[in-house]
Structures are given as structure tokens and as C-alpha cells.
Amino acid sequence: MNFGIVIFPPKDVQDAANSYRKRFDPHYSLIQPHLTIRESESWDPPTLANAVERLSDVAAKLPPVEVKLNRFSTFYPVSNVVYMALENPKPLERLHEAVCDGPLAVRERKYSFTPHLTVAQGVGGDEMHDIYSSLRPIPLAFSFVVDRLHLLYQTDNGAWTAHQTFLLQG
Amino acid sequence: MNFGIVIFPPKDVQDAANSYRKRFDPHYSLIQPHLTIRESESWDPPTLANAVERLSDVAAKLPPVEVKLNRFSTFYPVSNVVYMALENPKPLERLHEAVCDGPLAVRERKYSFTPHLTVAQGVGGDEMHDIYSSLRPIPLAFSFVVDRLHLLYQTDNGAWTAHQTFLLQG
After folding, report:
1. Whether residue B116 lies in the annotated active site
2. What DSSP character marks residue B58?
3. pTM
């Protein structure tokens, strides 16, 4: 079963992101707008049990993290993704490093970790450039505190279900 | 903001339910298959805080609950809904009563609480009868243990996001 760890931003950020995702992101109906902390990976039940224990321990010690989304950016040419970018990615990078260690260490890393909230993906290069050109001038100023992580799993239709929440209580 | 409390059944039940929901349930892309424990209600932040405190306290004392879905049923003529029904609804009725008390008491009750997993809704009477006739002969035997509740909130597009999980630890 595929498991992933994400942050859901507050409702106002989700509503804004969904207004773009509805048109530009084929994952729109599979999961709500999110910042991925650990990419999807197939886990057997013992791995899940270890992961839950690890997440409980780590979250209990980690303090909440302030996030400010201040612009649209793109991963082009690495991938045709447009996303809401963080003014300062460092705190979420540290959160990612703290979470993705021990039994949650990432073995096969496809990309370096860059916290982001995807609003467009799975589109061709020309379309991506059009989308990015139209979004880039839009001012973005969402500030919020991340005080929890969500462990999700995927059903056969590609959609994601909540397994457990971990509150950052450090 | 609208909040609701649900149980997500295991992945195999979700996959089976989604195979019907995809065709017969307009909520298919808004939320994964679930059993509602408390209907959606608009809460302000203090109400949410009270609800979270209440849920934490109640869940810590409640034991996990065994559920067996053993047939398809319908709420017709009260509503045009087809659902997976419980062999014995009593344990989830008791869970509902324990959760929906104090600050979570249900003030305006539309229907008596009947635990169910909806697979078809929002269809006309004739179509509902066709769906029910086609599903009714299908044998159903899903047994699982419910060991957590999920508090969800709704974004403007009607989709639901996980707010917090509460483990039944009694």
C-alpha cells in the first residue's frame, strides 16, 4: 500500500490553490492541496507500524513551523510543474530532514527536497509556460503555521485517504 | 467552516465502494468512502477547539469497534441512497452516542442515526431502484475493526480535508 506524508495548508490557501488546480492539475480530485513532506512509497504493515512510531516520536519533539507562500514558481526544465513557493524553505527543509530519517529515511531520492504547493502538473511544456506566465504576476501572500503532519494512503483509483495526524508539539 | 466526523473503512472496502461510487455517487471525487459518525456542521474556532478536546477525551476511553458490512440496503423512500449496511449497527450507534454528546451534541437531527457506507446518492427514484436491484444480489462480507475517527473540514469546492485523527484507545 502506498503511503505519503503531507501538510495541508489552511482552508483559504486550499481554496486559492484549488481555483488553479481545477484547471491545471489532474490530481485535483485525488487529494486536497498539500505540501509533500515525504513522497509516496509502498509500505508493508511492519513498515507502517515503524513509521507511525517514528512519526509520533518526532512530531512530539518538533515545534510548529511558520510558512509564507510568496510567489508562483516552476520546476521547469526538471519537471513541468508550477507551484506556490516559500519565501524561506529552510524550516520545512529541516522538518523534512527530521521526519525522513531512521525508518523513514528516503532510499531512492528522485529530486532534492524543495517544499512546494503544486497548482499545475501533467501538462505539456508550452501549456506549462502559458500557465506560469499567467500566474507569475499574481501577488501571493499566505502566511500560516504548520502544526501537524498527515500520513495518507492511496486507494486503487489514485485518491488518498487520511490514516493518522501527528501534531507538532515540541 | 464545515466540520464532520467520519470513519474510513480499510482500503479493500474503499476500493470496492469506489467501484460503485464512481458511477453512482456525485461525492466520489470529494471524499473517500466513509461511514459518517457526525454530520457536517459549521463551527467557529472556539467550537472547533471544544470539539477537538471532547473528541480527544472520548476517543481515549472508547474501545475499538468491530464492523461487518454484510449487504446492500437503501434509505428509500426517506432518501434515494443505496449503501453498504452493517450486520449489527449497535456498536457504531453506541460510538455515535458517545461522540455526539456535550459540545458535540446534535441539535437539529434530520434523520435517526443509522451507520452506513453510501455507494449511490443524488439519483432519481427510478435510477436508484435500478442501482439497488443490481447491487442487492451481490454478496458482501467485509469485516474490520474501527480503531480511529477522523475530523474533516470542507473546502469551497465541496471536498474534504483531514484536520485530525483520534485513536480509539479504551
Report:
1. yes
2. H
3. 0.96
